[in-house]
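worker-3 :: picked Gfo/Idh/MocA family oxidoreductase
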Amino acid sequence: MPKKLRLGILGGGSESLIGILHRVAAQINDNYELVAAVFTPDFDSNMAFAQEIDMPLNRVYQDFDTLIEEEMQLPESERIEVCAVLTPNYLHFPMALKLLENGFHVICEKPMTTSLEEAKVLQEAHKKAGTVFALTHTYTGYPMVRQMREMIKSGALGKIHKVDAVYYQGWVNTVIHDQKKRASVWRLDPKKAGISSCMGDIGVHAFNMLEFTTGLKVKSILSDFNYLYNGNPMDIDGTVLIRMGDHVKGVIRASQVATGEENGLAIAIYGEKAAFKWEQENPNFLYLLSDTQPTQIYKPGHGYNSVLSLDGTKLPAGHPEGIFDSMANIYKGAARAIRGQIYNDGEFPTMLDGVRGMNFIEATVESHKGGNVWVDLE
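worker-3 :: tokens ->
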């Protein structure tokens, strides 16, 4: 077993769901050791949380700039090798940029930046740095999503006709109707979240899943948003028509006010020979549909699955795998890339996925504000 990679974490303190997801994922395959962090802007809270998770306190830093300065003074054999950025959206770009400029590998939450312009700057910095950059579109790590990708690549569906992705949540419904409550949520603050809430937070996951599984690129979009209140500057619901080619079209539906919904991401890919359906809330079932044959169900851990799917499966067939395992597969792929090992290009989303995501987000906003018009993606 190779020596563990020295990991730093920015953000993801005690109240953060994404924080525990990343920390557990980093540990699952024994590839990383957490050695440095800035969990919160408040140093006392920072230290208290480090004690809570039993992390050595000598490399828990006051702030991000101090972390960079102090780590760079350590011998290369001791300083962090890779850093995970789990902060609110507006901090992703400056933090990732400085990490790349100092030669660190980066694992970053999405959206990668708050603008396409920033994403392109980061892309250039990444090219110069020559390090690994992994973007945590978590759902690409599910074994059955990877199985779908590999089977589509091998021609299981034939020519693709239609794609349909939906991502419904209901959590914003509990705050949107109270002006004071919605003003306190950072995801509804354009200064912290960027130009989009719904499409920037969850719609971009659906967009990424369609490109990841089909191998096709979205070429143009037409969007229609719902803000619910005139005083709310952020979209909280939207529908996006997409064109992936002259005869490959589809729709992305996303909502944060779909009352009663929890984390309802689902995709369907329809081809000339067959179709796939998959749901995040039931991630171990991949359905293959046909006009002429009974529906087939693929499940993780069986020998009939692809190498990529089986590599992302940690338990025998019949033992459910979930969101921690999915994120862990991305961390495992990033570790292979950092170590210079051979890896499948489907093991983790990259800088290009981050740029594509920001292109999608900005195009949806432009389309809606332009009067629901078609907008081309770069």
